[in-house]
Amino acid sequence: MQVTETLSEGLKHEFQISVPAADLDAKADAKLVDLKDKVRINGFRPGKVPVAHLKKIYGKSVMAETIDQTIRDTNTQIFTERGFRLATEPKVTMPTEEAEVEKILTGQSDLTYTVAVEVVPAIALADFKTFSVEKPVADITDADVDEAIKRLADANRGYAAKADGAKAESGDRVKVSFKGTIDGVAFEGGTGEGIDVVIGSNTFIPGFEDQLIGIGVGETRTLKVTFPTNYLNNELAGKAAEFETTATAIEAPEDKVIDDEFAKTLGLESLDKLKQLMRDRLAGEFNQATRQRVKRTLLDRLDETHKFDAPPSLIDEEFNLMWNSVKAEMDSSGKTFADENTTEDKAKEEYRTIADRRVRLGLVLSEIGEKNKITVTDDEVSRAVIERARSMPGREKEVWDFYRSNAQALAQLRAPIYEDKVVDFILELANVTEKKVSKDELFKDDDSDKAA
Fold it and tell me: PPIase FKBP-type domain: which residues (predicted)?
């Protein structure tokens, strides 16, 4: 076998490989010898079929299998010897002319092919013991608890029909019937009759509720939305859709008295018990917000201390995912880049910068996890699936079946678990100090956080 490197530019490499016909023929003959004990051919006793006869019948198909296996084994050997970690699947280019292919399959010609790869660069990890990370912490006040209970009361309040001719406002409950289409074609699950929508509850596809503001009973509107990229149904994720929607009733919310009786309707003994429950729940939310802030700070530190050229193909892939989502969202909302005080070229540049950061951080986290033998167990993934199912009451079995039969969806659940375990590993080594902040500061929603 002869291997010649024909390209070495940055992270891109290309090799030309030539495998002698005699080597392929020997491997194919070995497969045929193994085959003779397994096939049954009229006129021959089991295991007594001559290899030459088998070659006439199965020669080309066995040679094709031999070539496929030889290419895989050879590529693995080349990459392993050079210490390559592949960023993408190898791109193999084979002869295409019929006469040349025939000669290779019949053992008359050597196999010559090229393989192109893009590799992950060597990553020198920082000393995480030198990292200083600030941990923002906010106290939960009585006002926070009261506000949370008020939101809970609003969610459990009743509704009364509005006067004839009244229009829907934020907070109103609108009963609608709709038919959804994508590129003019109806899709499964896109039709609903007598569905209650509370405007501002953010329970429907982003943009759906807002477009109901101002609608009247009997009025029909075409609502334009884009399914989130992380939507449960992968066939709909990221796609723009239209819903022909008719309002059949509009109701305004009624005030709910917050007292012991209200607490009892929720299965609690008293208002004091409800307040304690909400305080505990807020503690979980505050801790999660603190976690997100700490994680962001840590990712910034990793970004600062790990500067290297990421594989261009991975950056392109990440950028295209984000850009397609941005374009679909803008198309559905009718917004332009001018509305966002930017241009398309400038927006592309910004998103490509974000894509580069995401890819580099992903590679760094992967390197840390690999070197420190950090793994995600099947039990941890199963617990994540259960939590996802619990978040969709009434659809638990549907969610469970979806993940059980969808390896890609499971991988999407596994990735954040792995990332969090790597983050925890670094925080164990870093110098973490607490800092008291206000609730507003803890929960502020920076664009930079979204980019991270």
Answer: 171-231
